[in-house]
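Morning F.,

Quick status update on the modeling queue. The single chain you submitted on Monday has been processed. Sequence for confirmation:
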Amino acid sequence: MIKFIYVASPILHKRHYLLFSNDIKNICQKYNIQILLTFLPTRNLLRKLSISLSELSNYQNIVFIDTLEHKNLILLLKKTDCLLFLSEQESLGLPILEAVMNEIPVIAPNLSYATELLGSGYPYLFESADIKNTRKSLIKIIKKFIYDFNSNQVKSHNKLNFKSIDDLVDLMFSKFKNNS
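Structure tokens below.
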């Protein structure tokens, strides 16, 4: 089984709706993918996703887990094969940063917050223009990841110059000092 995790809260701009489609359900079943979501499904969120509580059982490959303490979240992240990060807006994608620091590959949209951390040539970025094309691009990238995973070619592509959050803060402040 290939395990993905999406570390997110149940906020609409996180684009959970991308996961609740027949295309994603079929790819999860075909390739034995489990997607862990780090929140519980609220009625309000399900209404926004246009899914009833009874329809949720159709998505057996999607598992909701309750909010975790940070240390337990990192332990869970280390046990997964890939971080899914679908958000259409972020100031800093902390889960991406944590995944990279733990050498976990990331599937993310080709948006500035992701490319700043992963680089513009990162192999698992999907295009994020409109919902139809975004879902198609996401499926294409998931299939690329599965191919790479099954052929032992997945790399975390950690090109960052730090190994801890403290190193990142030092790096950011050193750049800030040099620019002032």
